[in-house]
Amino acid sequence: MGTIKTERAFNILMATNRRHYTKTNPYQDWPQNIVPFLGIHVCLNLSSMVLSFHAYSLDALNDKLIEGATVLDVGSGSGYLTSCFARMVGPAGRVIGIEHIPELVEQSIANINSDDPTLLTGGRIQFFVSDGRLGYPAAAPYDVIYVGASTVEVPKTLLSQLKPGGRMVLPVGKYGDIQYYEQLDKQEDGTVVIKKMMRVQFIPLTDEAAQMQSPEVLGFHPHDYLVLPGYMERVSPQVLQQLPLAAPNWAEKLNSKSQDALWE
Ligand code: SAH
């Protein structure tokens, strides 16, 4: 963690301004809920920073997020990673975002419209309100399946929608227990090679009713919501600067700009 290995991931993160995906302080460094009072969180372990986590994910998927690739983004939330994926696969690619909370889908559409509406109007990104555990068979098979919430076991239905040669990345393990961020590569013969990448802590991929229960169920105190309502993953430029990035002149680029101007 804490490293961007590929220049491409760095460039995509730089091109995807978090400001469009959160209301304020888009560059702060802790996981937050995206919509207030809904009990929706991105939760990573304390040693992990969210931006570096996003960088890690894009790095892990870099080889597969090629021009024209088809991607399934399960638990698309704010749409931030959905946009990053769409930028990576280019105009010939296709990204399906599945999210079970309708308000979040509406918000993610508004976010992307504020960032770059052509990602939606051109059909590169499509969102559906549904249960991500079922995937989205109509556009399967996928080169990449990314799951932004944890499951105790790898969902077979999702795996069946992965192309031979494709890659799935997801957090596996019980919520509140040890979870690993895993990379699953489906071979041409259909067998799957699993790589455990790191310890994480994600909210569960669950049904809507369970997610809407009290925040304590997800391990957060309601106070968090009152103090910090409504903002998703926030990362500071200071944190960015500490990352040993591969891209040239990154430190200069970041140092030369104020926080607000960083992503302009
Ligand atoms: N990747 C997202 C954040 C993921 S947080 C981003 O960049 O913003 C996990 C998301 O999974 C939440 O938005 C949550 O609502 C969603 N989720 C949880 N269970 C789900 C399910 N069964 N089907 C679809 N989405 C689900």
Automatic annotation (TrEMBL):
Annotated GO CC locations: cytoplasm
Enzyme category, top tier: transferase
Keyword entries, A-Z: Cytoplasm, Methyltransferase, S-adenosyl-L-methionine, Transferase
Subcellular compartments: Cytoplasm
Keyword S-adenosyl-L-methionine applies: yes
MF (Gene Ontology): protein-L-isoaspartate (D-aspartate) O-methyltransferase activity
EC identifiers of the protein: 2.1.1.77
Any one Gene Ontology BP term: methylation
Regions crossing the membrane: none
Chief location: cytoplasm
Entry's family note: Belongs to the methyltransferase superfamily. L-isoaspartyl/D-aspartyl protein methyltransferase family.
Name this protein carries in UniProt: protein-L-isoaspartate(D-aspartate) O-methyltransferase
Native organism taxonomy: Eukaryota, Metazoa, Chordata, Craniata, Vertebrata
